C-alpha cells in the first residue's frame, strides 16, 4: 500500500469514526428527550450565544461589603458550581439554602436529567424579582479543583444576553481559589457584562457584621440591604425531589472554595 492509499484509508477511517460519534450522540439526545417528555422536565439552561462586537461602557464593578443573598435589588445572583450534581456545604452553598431550597433542588434535578455540563448557565427562581444563575465552570478531580475560565466565559456570555434583555443587575461573591483566578474572572465580568451596561456588584462577606441582620422570613417580607448579613439558621436541607420519585443521590460534604 503506497503513501497515497494510506492517506485515503486514514481519511476513510476518520469519517467513519465521526459518523459513529454523531450516531451515538443522536441516540443519546433522543433518549434524553424521551426522558424529559416523560418526566415533564423543562431545562433551566440558557441558550449558548456569542458576545456582540464593538461593545463599550463606562460602567465598572461595584464592590459591596455584605451578604450577596441579602441584596435588596432586583436581579440575578451568580453561583459557580461543578457538573457533579452534588450540592456542597459552606460558603454560598449553605447561604442560598438557608433562604430557599429551589436552587439546590433544580441543580440536582438537572444532573438527574442529564442536563448539567461545563459552560452552561442555569437560571432558577429564588425569590420574586431575584433569581440564581448557576454557572457550571468548576472542574473537580479526585484530589484537585480547578476554576475553568473558558467555561466561565461561556456561561457569562449566556447570562449577559439574558440579563441585558430583561434589564437586570448581577450580584456575586468574590469567586476563585487564587488571585490569578479572580483577575481572570474580573476580566470576563467586564467583557461579558459591563460591556453591555449591565450593573454588576461584587460582595465581600463580613462575618463581623453578620450578627446585626436577619434573613428573609418569606418571599413577601422586606429584603435586607447589602450591608445586612443573614444569621438565620434553618433545619438541614432535604434532598431534591424527582418529578415522580425521590432522587437517590448521596450528597458529599464538599467544602465550597467559591463564594462568600
What features would you describe in this structure?
This protein is of the alpha/beta class and 260 residues long. Helices cover 34% and strands 17% of the residues. It has helices at residues 3-39, 91-99, 102-112, 149-166, 179-192, and strands at 62-65, 75-82, 121-127, 130-140, 145-147, 169-173, 200-204. Strands 1, 2, 3, 4, 5, 6 and 7 form a 7-stranded mixed beta sheet that branches. A hairpin with a 4-residue loop joins β4 and β5. α4 (149-166) packs parallel to α5. The radius of gyration is 21 Å and the shape is globular. Residues 211-225 and 227-260 have low confidence and may be disordered.
Q: Overall 3D geometry?
A: globular
The whole-angstrom Rg is 21 Å
Determine the number of helices (DSSP H or I, runs of at least 4 residues): 5
Strand content: 15-25%
Number of strands: 7
State mean pLDDT (0 to 100 scale): 79
Order of helices and strands: HEEHHEEEHEHE
N-end to C-end Cα span: 64 Å
Characterize the main sheet. 7 strands, mixed
Poorly predicted runs of 5 or more residues:
211-225, 227-260
Structural class, from secondary structure content? alpha/beta
- The portion of residues assigned to helices is 25-40%
Notable features of this structure?
seven-stranded mixed beta sheet; 260 residues; 5 helices; alpha/beta; single chain
List the helices and strands and how they pair.
Layout: H1 3-39, E1 62-65, E2 75-82, H2 91-99, H3 102-112, E3 121-127, E4 130-140, E5 145-147, H4 149-166, E6 169-173, H5 179-192, E7 200-204
Parallel strand pairs: 1-7, 2-4, 2-6, 6-7
Antiparallel strand pairs: 3-4, 4-5
